[in-house]
Amino acid sequence: MAAAEPWPPPPRPPFATLREHRRVGSDSLVFVSEHLGATLLVWLLIGIALALPATLYLLQANLGAIADEWRGRPGFSVYFEVGADINQAHALKRDLLALPDIDQATVVTPEQALDEFRGSVAVADALELLGENPLPASLRATLADGVPATRLSSLAERAAAADAVEEVVVEKLWLQRLAALSAVVDRMAWMLAALFGVGAALITSASVRLAIEGRLEELRVQRLVGAATAFIRRPLLYLGAIYGLGGGIIAAMLIAAALSALEGPLGTLFDSYGSKLELDWMAPPFMAGLLGASVILGLAGAFLAARTRLKSLAVA
Fold first, then answer.
1. How far apart are CA 200 and CA 245, in angstroms?
2. Burial letters for 200-218: b for 16+ Cβ neighbours within 10 Å, e otherwise?
């Protein structure tokens, strides 16, 4: 049986840990304010490292929304022979609507197609010279929600086998290109997030290492009087968290500036696809993720600096 200690440690006062964290946080803020120039530089470097992948993430989210929620949805157009009976188009419409994969099917009569062409100034005069309507009837079909675009080919082949069908045009090329572009942006965002995330952590690590060099004698004294490793490392972790949080705020400001400059041309591009641009960078989930990631990277950089430098000095 182990002997009892002759001088047992006194009981820890209530809320002592909370008061200690408050003191360390206050001291860290004082240190940051005393080195404001260097701190602003660190915040700017971290903000730049986080802003680019975060902006790409927002763009990818909007590109994905166009592909997933495009109000027209992927579909195909069926063009009948000139002079074909309009009842054949309505018969094909009924057959397609009976399929669970088809959500909508609309018949466009030759007269309706002619009216649409008359709305174009470039062809209005040419149409007046024709004695008869040269446009055929057509049918436009769209897929139901949840139906993959890969079903378009088989559905188009089924429609092409109907009577009096001249041509079937599958309207999926732009969706395939958009999906490919969205995948490229998504992959770039994750690659840059990993690359710049490591860079942000290394920036914080180098900054905290400089802070360690400036407080080296203090840390040695703390170790000589019996301070635990966690106690010595705690102010450094607070410093890393402050660096990371400040960098996240700078990143949000840079994202706002970038999106303000890009909103006009991007809005025009998205309008051409019948979708609304929604760059909601102030959304709570996005801001929480951005600031949370910046704080975690700051803590990781500070922990790395404390572990390597203090261990080399035999104080950890």
1. 12
2. bbbbbbebbbebbeeeeee
Helices 229-272 & 16-34 angle (0-180, nearest 10):
60
Supply the DSSP string of 59-121, one letter for each residue: HHHHHHHHHHH-TT-SEEEEEEPTT--HHHHHHHHHHHHTSTTEEEEEEE-HHHHHHHHHT-H
Distance from C-alpha of 316 to C-alpha of 308, rounded to nearest angstrom: 9
| CA–CA distance, 75 with 56 (Å, rounded to integer) | 29
Indicate if the alpha-carbon torsion angle 45, 46, 47, 51 is positive or negative. positive
- Domains defined along the chain, listed by start: 21-68+177-312 (no CATH), 75-171 (3.30.70.3040)
Q: Cβ of 312: how many Cβ atoms within 10 Å? A: 9
Question: Comparing C-alpha atoms, which of 132, 94, 87 is closest to residue 109?
Answer: 87
For the segment 228-247, the average pLDDT, to the nearest whole number, is 86
- Could you tell me how far CA 99 lies from the centroid of its own chain? 36
Q: What tokens does 137 get? A: 């009837």
**pLDDT per residue as tens digits for the range 94-136:** 998 888 888 888 898 888 877 776 665 455 555 556 556 677 8
